[in-house]
Design goal:
heterotrimer, A alpha/beta (about 280), B mainly alpha (about 270), C alpha/beta (about 290), B: about 270 residues, mainly alpha, 2 domains, two-stranded antiparallel sheet, flat, disordered N terminus, C: about 290 residues, alpha/beta, Rossmann fold, 12 helices, globular
Chain lengths: ~280, ~270, ~290
């Protein structure tokens, strides 16, 4: 995996209307090829707006966004950019176009003008990759939320993108559906080297990311590995975001004088550290 | 739970009729309508009846289901029959008080009623054996030559397909909003017509708001999957005219020819 | 006000090919002033169950008793029942319809046929409960508010009927941590200050551990477990089977016990665990400056 940048956001400012509040303020970031990047932020922080700038659904007011070497404001490249940077959205019901699963997966390919036989091959592969082959002939309204989102992922995957942007794609799902969708994205990232930009307000979904960017009020408030970001318990709280339960517990114990080290995130790590201090064998 | 709704009239079984190309089925239905209209002669109707029975047997759609299409029309049927029966002039057959029943009147009444029945049956035979989505595909392709005249064939088909996709979703939503308003004491059942229409406001407003939101979301999702109209699009579902389609067309043409021949060679009054 | 379900079963589309038994012989009592969490994964029947509590669905078999009276008996005033048992659906903001926040919240009380003055007072009180300033928001359009605010207005719409039992189906679904905490605080206040009985459907075991006094676990249309949270959280296998898991604090306790640390059986919230660990550290004398 090379560390080549595949998305570059360069001093971007965005507002919905002339004179309205700026949703994004002079934001700059780079997404590396093959990376799993989580973008965390509360509602209204600007994270969804940022997502829509990444495949040219919105165009920056100032600055520029470059995806796989193409500037999103170049109208000739719009369709190429959207093919390279696929996007899945929040509401699973509102992004499925067709009345049958496999035909929905075909939708993007039909738009791109992919020949029929090639289309069939890609649909089968995409459904296989999200473990939905068995439901290929189902009607979308018979599927669970998690399954619908997996169909949406397959629809994007069939277009053979380099980047998948998930814009709060688990917000409307139950815990099982959320786990399913997140698992699929991590697997695509691991096995196919897919670059994933995962936008969420659920801290636990960012825990396994390679890198986290926390957005607040249209700017980048924190950036780093999950361990670096979640150690900042106080800052995260002022940004109205959660931290992992164990990080919070360790933090509150530390404040009461218990000498626990920084950077505890998981139950296993916590067990280990508490044991060092308390367990009978030590 | 609205999982069990079936859309339109489509009767999902497998049969030679179901397998026909939707475009051909549309053409066949149109030809059948022409046949029913040009038929001047009772013997022609017998031929059409035989053909319809054969086709419906071949379609594996139960006779009962087939007849369902006639049910909403029963009043119009009776009305047509009586209107023609009572208000035609010609040779008197018999009379009941001041009402005179003429030979021409009876003939006309039977003629128009049969015409109506066969029209309904032949179109339902198409809608029963063709899924709405296949139908919209067929229409899109049949009308695509009209694109030269800026006829939006693709757009109409896309609209129809999206409508079909969202009907179950919106029905589920309607059910939910209705229950939510009932939980706030709303009453959708009692009161006069005006009161009931007014009671629909708390249901319709949220439904509209949500439909617009869905439409906005969907437009964005479609755009991000490179949708830019019907130009240069390929299709997953490719319609293919097969031998059976040509055979069906052949039979239909034969039927039309026979109807015309009967019109010419069998004198009008022979049967009835 | 108490609610009792006696052998309740519910079958969807009975007699058709799509027949499905969503509830199977449910027996359940909810006492006045309880805070009950209803848990289970999607399709376990919990949404069907809550719709029985105010008569939106009638059981195929069995009885639902509110204050000892069968709510589905002849001549029972359902409208009055629905005032007493308030039901907040999932994503309730999608049911808003009026031009102003005030009118929307007044919809319930108006359907009850209350005098204008009383309606107005109730709207004020309800807005107060959900932390929305009457002066600031009463005349705004509900559609101009943020998602979290819209949800609070929708909840106020149910509160304005001043129910003594409030049933909420996943009231925090889709909200960010700030919105979630706010809704949970509102529910907590209603329970503590107004003594409203709360029945809350929730997927978050950590929220349940922190808030509810009793939890009911549903599986395949039946009640798999019911009891005080500290008891139910001991049944790890059952919770796993129901697709639920346990709070992070319970997981930590388990791991620590495996390592030989003595911990009481009934620790299940982060606060309790924090206090207990702190006590142990102090006993060990490992704290600087104490």
């Amino acid at each position: 995996m090379s560390n080549q940048a595949c998305v570059q956001v360069d001093h971007v400012t965005f507002q919905y209307e002339e004179g309205a509040d700026k949703v994004l303020k002079d934001i700059s970031l780079t997404v590396n090829r093959g990376e799993f990047l989580a973008i965390l932020g509360h509602n209204g922080s600007g994270k969804s707006t940022l997502a829509k700038l990444l495949n040219g659904l919105y165009l920056p007011g100032e600055g520029r966004v470059v995806v796989c070497g193409m500037d999103t404001s170049d109208e000739n490249e719009t369709w190429n950019i959207r093919q390279k940077a696929g996007m899945i959205f929040q509401n699973p019901d509102n992004q499925i176009v067709a009345t049958v699963v496999r035909e929905d997966v075909a939708f993007g390919l039909e738009n791109m003008g992919v020949p029929h036989d090639e289309m069939v091959r890609r649909i089968d592969a995409a459904l296989e990759a999200v473990h939905m082959s068995e439901r290929a002939e189902s009607a979308p309204h018979m599927l669970s939320g998690g399954q619908k989102q997996r169909v949406a992922i397959a629809g994007v995957l069939a277009m053979e993108p380099e980047i998948i942007i998930a814009d709060e794609s688990t917000a409307m799902l139950d815990p099982q559906g959320r786990a399913e969708v997140l698992e699929v994205m991590h697997r695509l990232n691991r096995e196919k080297g897919m670059t994933v930009i995962w936008i969420t307000h659920y801290m636990e979904e960012a825990a396994d990311a390679d890198r986290i960017i926390v957005i607040s009020d249209g700017t980048i408030a924190l950036e780093g590995t999950p361990r670096e970001v979640f150690s900042q318990v106080g800052t995260m709280r002022t940004l109205h975001l959660d931290v992992p339960h164990m990080a919070a517990l360790a933090d509150s114990l530390r404040k009461d004088g218990v000498p626990l080290p920084e950077g505890i995130l998981t139950v296993e790590e916590m067990t280990q550290e508490v044991c060092k201090l308390l367990c009978p064998s030590n | 739970m609205l999982n069990n709704i079936t859309l339109g009239q489509y009767y999902p079984v497998d049969s030679p009729i179901h397998r026909l190309d939707p475009r051909m089925k549309i053409i066949l239905t149109l030809l059948m309508i022409v046949g029913v209209f040009i038929c001047q002669n009772f013997s022609g109707y017998i031929l059409i009846l035989l053909f319809t029975v054969a086709a419906s047997r071949l379609s594996h759609v139960p006779f009962k289901v087939m007849m369902k299409g006639l049910k909403p029309l029963r009043f119009i049927l009776v009305f047509t029959f009586l209107l023609n029966l009572f208000f035609s002039t010609g040779t008197e057959l018999f009379h009941v008080g001041p009402v005179v029943i003429t030979r021409e009147g009876l003939r006309q009444a039977i003629h128009y009623s049969l015409r109506l029945v066969f029209l309904v049956i032949s179109t339902s035979l198409m809608t029963l054996t063709t899924s709405p989505i296949a139908l919209s595909d067929g229409l899109e392709q049949l009308f695509s030559p009209l694109k030269v005249f800026h006829f939006p064939a693709h757009e109409l088909a896309m609209m129809m397909s999206i409508a079909l996709r969202f009907i179950p979703t919106l029905m589920e939503e309607t059910d939910k909003i209705m229950k939510a308003q009932k939980a706030r004491g709303a009453d959708f059942e009692s009161g006069n017509l005006l009161a009931r229409a007014k009671a629909m406001v708390p249901l319709l407003v949220p439904l509209f708001v949500s439909s617009f939101r869905r439409a906005g979301d969907l437009a964005m999702a479609m755009e991000s999957r490179c949708y830019h109209g019907g130009e240069h699009r390929t299709r997953l579902r490719v319609l293919k005219i097969t031998g059976n389609d040509w055979l069906a067309l052949g039979i239909m043409i034969l039927l039309l020819v026979l109807i015309v021949l009967l019109n010419i060679f069998v004198p009008k009054g022979l049967i009835l | 006000m108490s609610i009792e379900l006696k052998h309740v079963s519910y079958v969807y589309s009975a007699g058709s090919a799509f027949e499905r038994r969503a509830l199977n012989d449910i027996c359940l009592t909810i006492e006045d002033g309880e805070y009950v969490a209803l848990c289970g994964h999607t399709g376990c029947g919990k949404s069907t169950l809550v719709q029985h509590l105010n008569g939106l669905l009638q059981p195929t078999e069995g009885q639902v008793l509110v204050d000892g009276k069968d709510i589905n008996a002849e001549g029972v005033d359902r409208k009055r029942l629905r005032q007493k048992v308030g039901l907040v659906f999932q994503y309730p903001e999608y049911q808003l319809f009026e031009e102003t926040v005030e009118k929307d919240i007044a919809f319930g009380p108006r359907n009850m046929g209350l005098p204008e003055k009383e309606i107005h007072e109730r709207v004020r009180r309800a807005m107060d409960h959900v932390h929305m300033s009457y002066e600031k928001y009463a005349q705004s359009s509900p559609f101009d508010l943020s998602g979290g605010q819209m949800r609070r207005v929708a909840i106020a719409g149910v509160l304005a009927m001043e129910p003594s039992v409030l049933v909420l189906d996943e009231p925090t679904a889709g909200l960010d941590p700030r919105g979630r905490d706010r809704i949970l605080r509102i529910i907590q206040e209603l329970h503590e200050e107004k003594n409203v009985t709360i029945i809350m459907v929730s997927h978050s075991m950590d929220d349940v551990a922190r808030l509810a006094s009793r939890m009911i676990v549903m599986m395949d249309g039946t009640i798999a477990a019911s009891g005080p949270c500290r008891e139910v959280f001991q049944k790890r296998d059952l919770l796993e089977q129901a697709g639920l898991g346990v709070p992070a604090a319970v997981k930590l306790c388990l791991k620590l016990r495996e390592q030989g640390l003595q911990l009481p059986e009934d620790l299940y919230t982060a606060e309790e665990l924090h206090d207990h660990l702190l006590k142990l550290f102090k006993e060990k004398g490992g704290l600087k400056g104490c």
